[in-house]
């Protein structure tokens, strides 16, 4: 199923939680909504779910306008971080819940519900735990049961709000791989809210980066990492070094000295150079290079991480080449670099 969010805005009193947000999820796509706390991710998810309604704009599923349709009629599966299982019900009864509460005419026969629950227990790889109570499960197992409960009603769309937020790093990593496989196998369209960039970049086909109620960029994990559209995305996704410069008549100046850097199409005025540690080439302090003073050096994975300073600004560079001495003057060059107008 495809989802279209068309110019959706939502206010809470004077506060604009979503401001003219538009995006599309293609059928079978896994979208991550990524952004800092309060950026509007959950509000947007709730509009898609039908748990809340926009002040203006539209929500379409497969082209049909669902803007005012309540959640119960949207055929959606939800998994929330704090969407606790019913403690007094067994795992099997929890999974069956969405089917057993249906009106009699839509409710499957008891034997069919049992069969469906057994199928879902297999799917979440907990085939023998149907008789247990939630308190007898680990956190990761509970979230898998929550997912099975969401899938029981055969949703067309799966919405997940920080489903693994409360779990430890290792379980989280395992579960997210498993979730991605499940998404592919079942042919779902999924929207996943997270503020963990690693999770978003690893899981999603495309990442929607949100900030203060607007979308800063929508792109593949590679696009948002390698080609950040805004300074916010550059800072929020991955590590970034930022150096103030000036654009003047097609040149990029640092303390009046021209750098070998393309100003792209920027107008004259103050600007900011953004580069990731692996994007700088460490060399000598020749004209055109950004001058640095080398600090500590330490091993990081297969490369060296060099800490350095540009004036009093700390920068970090990854290199596998010859290592400069601490205190040495050196210079940085760039194959490709992001440059944004100063805010
Ligand atoms: N019912 C509400 N009434 C008033 N303000 C609200 C309401 N729901 C959300 N907000 C505000 O809207 C903003 C966006 O909230 P939202 O929950 O969408 O953010 P989020 O990006 O999901 O954050 P988090 O990562 O912390 O969950 C926040 O500033 C929040 O305080």
From TrEMBL:
Keyword Translocase found: yes
Keyword set, alphabetical order: ATP-binding, Nucleotide-binding, Sulfate transport, Translocase, Transport
Organism field: Sphingomonas aerolata
Recorded GO MF terms: ABC-type sulfate transporter activity; ATP binding; ATP hydrolysis activity
NCBIfam families assigned: 3a0106s01 (TIGR00968)
Domain ABC transporter: from-to ranges: 3-237
Gene Ontology BP term (one): quaternary ammonium group transport
GO CC terms, sorted: ATP-binding cassette (ABC) transporter complex
InterPro entries the UniProt entry points to: AAA+_ATPase, ABC_SmlMolc_Importer, ABC_transporter-like_ATP-bd, ABC_transporter-like_CS, Mo/tungstate-bd_C_term_dom, P-loop_NTPase, Sulph_transpt1
Superkingdom as given in the UniProt entry: Bacteria
Protein name (record): Sulfate transport system ATP-binding protein
């Amino acid at each position: 199923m495809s989802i279209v969010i068309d110019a959706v805005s939502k206010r809470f009193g004077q506060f604009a939680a979503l401001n003219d947000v538009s995006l599309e999820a293609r059928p079978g796509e896994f979208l991550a909504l990524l952004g800092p706390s309060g950026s509007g991710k959950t509000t947007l998810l709730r509009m898609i779910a039908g748990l809340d309604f926009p002040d203006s704009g539209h929500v379409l599923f497969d082209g049909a306008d669902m803007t005012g349709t309540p959640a119960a009629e949207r055929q959606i599966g939800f998994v929330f971080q704090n969407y606790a299982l019913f403690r007094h019900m067994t795992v099997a009864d929890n999974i069956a819940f969405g089917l057993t509460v249906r009106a009699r005419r839509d409710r499957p026969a008891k034997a069919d519900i049992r069969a469906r629950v057994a199928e879902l227990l297999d799917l979440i790889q907990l085939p023998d735990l149907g008789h247990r109570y939630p308190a007898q499960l680990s956190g990761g197992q509970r979230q898998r049961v929550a997912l099975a409960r969401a899938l029981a009603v055969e949703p067309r769309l799966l919405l997940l709000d920080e489903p693994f937020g409360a779990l430890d790093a290792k379980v989280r990593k395992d579960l997210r791989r498993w979730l991605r496989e499940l998404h592919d196998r079942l042919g779902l369209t999924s929207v996943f809210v997270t503020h963990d960039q690693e999770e978003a970049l690893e899981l999603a086909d495309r990442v929607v980066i949100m900030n203060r109620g607007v979308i800063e960029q929508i792109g593949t994990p590679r696009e948002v990492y390698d080609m950040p559209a805004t300074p916010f995305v550059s800072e929020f996704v991955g590590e970034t070094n930022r150096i103030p410069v000036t654009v003047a008549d097609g040149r990029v100046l640092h303390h009046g000295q021209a750098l070998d850097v393309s100003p792209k199409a920027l107008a004259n005025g103050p600007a900011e150079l953004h580069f990731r540690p692996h994007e700088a080439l460490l060399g000598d302090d020749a004209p055109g290079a950004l001058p640095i003073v080398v600090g500590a050096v330490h091993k990081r994975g297969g490369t060296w991480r060099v800490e350095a300073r540009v004036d009093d600004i700390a920068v970090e560079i990854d290199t596998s080449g010859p290592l400069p001495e601490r205190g040495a003057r050196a210079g940085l060059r760039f194959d490709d670099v992001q440059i944004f107008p100063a805010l």
